[in-house]
């Protein structure tokens, strides 16, 4: 266990700290835990879109990837300027990516591990892959090259998903509906490579092919991180660039949505632009309030607690709920701790959507208390 100031990044010099970024990270993790832990019927904004379209819940994961990209710049640029070897930094990024990937593999099936059905893709696995890819491009590619990579990944993914025939089914938009839930190319490839190890049986929302456009989210974060370093002394210019950039991304996403629908489970190119644009606007708002005007810094403190141990908070939330689902309070092994707690504390609340929300808030608060205990002891776990 070691101390650091930022999850997913090495220690950052105090001069480079952004309260807004830590709070944004904390809010993202808190909302991630909240929407993952409802019990029973939930309000639509707290659920993922069933297929095309989006809800606020669909903004959580890509926002975290965006923050990862910003953190890469703020934590790595100063080390490069001090003369640290890029090879050393690459090795550090690779080790971190491996740890996060393995952690994801271990968490999902906890506490029952069956090789035949062990899920291979996952949230932490995608974070690891996107983080490492973005770190490599930041270390070895220039700004123009990274812009080219972002454009290339989004355009190529659209071309592949739109025009490449799906074996056994035909051309999307011609022989089969565009973005068919089960018969799209991404789902077909995942079945070929990982059948039996997918979250939704015949497809996976964190599958292999859809990870490629997801790399653009941290790359966009890297771009914003460089803006922050360049314009840190000119907050009005930084806010203008974030606001204009965010709006342009959202407008572009809406136009692309007409021919390549916004879809979180396939991580479509229009979805990437939408989520990057909204992340820019949220960061701009947080930066204006917290770092420029210093308004609401005390109120933002609970989010800051989550932000200092983001990966640990998420991992704890997943392990706790999985453990409680597998511990029973009756002799017949039918009433889990989770179900007992829900029935006792929240089962009487009506309508059931309110009960589910209250349960999720209480669960998020429990995870916050765990993270706060680490925060009090100044323990910031570098994953």
Explain what this protein looks like in three dimensions.
The chain has 383 residues and is mainly alpha-helical. It folds into two domains: 1-47 and 296-383, no CATH class; 60-295, no CATH class. Helices cover 61% and strands 0% of the residues.
Q: How do you describe this structure in short?
A:
By secondary structure, this protein is mostly helical. The protein folds into two domains: 1-47 and 296-383, no CATH class; 60-295, no CATH class. Helix content is 61%, strand content 0%.
Quick one: overall form? globular
Number of domains: 2
**Portion of residues in helices?**
55-70%
Our estimate of the beta-strand percent is under 5%
Which parts are unreliable, with pLDDT below 50 for 5 consecutive residues or more?
Answer: 1-15
The first-to-last residue Cα distance is: 9 Å
Order of helices and strands: HHHHHHHHHHHHHH
Largest sheet: none
Which structural class fits the helix and strand makeup?
Answer: mainly alpha
Task: Give the overall average pLDDT.
Answer: 91
Question: What's the alpha carbon Rg, rounded to whole Å?
Answer: 21 Å
Strand count: 0
The count of helical stretches stands at 14
């Amino acid at each position: 266990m070691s101390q650091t100031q930022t999850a997913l990044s090495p220690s950052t010099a105090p001069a480079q700290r952004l309260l807004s970024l830590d709070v944004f990270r904390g809010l993202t993790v808190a909302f991630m835990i909240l929407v993952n832990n409802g019990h029973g019927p939930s309000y639509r904004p707290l659920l993922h879109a069933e297929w095309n379209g989006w809800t606020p819940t669909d903004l959580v994961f890509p926002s975290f990837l965006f923050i990862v990209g910003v953190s890469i710049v703020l934590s790595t640029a100063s080390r490069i300027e001090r003369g640290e070897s890029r090879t050393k930094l690459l090795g550090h990024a690779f080790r971190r990516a491996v740890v996060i990937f393995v952690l994801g593999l271990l968490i999902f099936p906890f506490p029952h591990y069956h090789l035949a059905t062990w899920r291979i893709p996952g949230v932490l696995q995608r974070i690891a892959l996107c983080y490492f890819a973005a770190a490599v491009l930041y270390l070895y590619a220039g700004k123009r090259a990274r812009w080219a990579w972002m454009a290339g990944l989004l355009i190529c993914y659209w071309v592949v998903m739109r025009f490449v025939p799906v074996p056994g089914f035909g051309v999307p938009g011609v022989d089969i509906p565009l973005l068919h839930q089960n018969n799209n190319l991404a789902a077909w490839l995942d079945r070929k490579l990982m059948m039996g190890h997918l979250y939704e049986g015949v497809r996976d929302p964190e599958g292999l092919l859809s990870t490629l456009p997801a790399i653009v989210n941290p790359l966009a974060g890297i771009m914003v991180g460089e803006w922050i370093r360049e314009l840190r002394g000119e907050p009005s210019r930084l806010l203008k660039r974030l606001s204009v950039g965010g709006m342009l991304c959202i407008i572009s996403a809406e136009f692309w949505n007409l021919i390549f629908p916004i879809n979180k489970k396939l991580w479509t190119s229009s979805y990437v632009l939408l989520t990057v644009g909204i992340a820019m606007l949220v960061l701009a708002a947080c930066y204006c309030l917290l770092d420029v005007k210093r308004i609401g810094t005390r109120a933002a403190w609970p989010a800051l607690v989550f932000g200092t141990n983001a990966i640990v908070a998420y991992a704890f939330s997943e392990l706790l709920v999985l453990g409680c689902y597998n511990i029973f309070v009756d002799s017949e092994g039918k009433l889990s701790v989770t179900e007992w707690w829900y029935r006792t504390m929240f089962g009487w609340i009506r309508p059931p959507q309110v009960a589910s929300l209250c349960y999720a808030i209480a669960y998020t608060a429990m995870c916050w208390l765990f993270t706060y205990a680490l925060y009090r002891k100044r323990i910031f776990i570098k994953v």
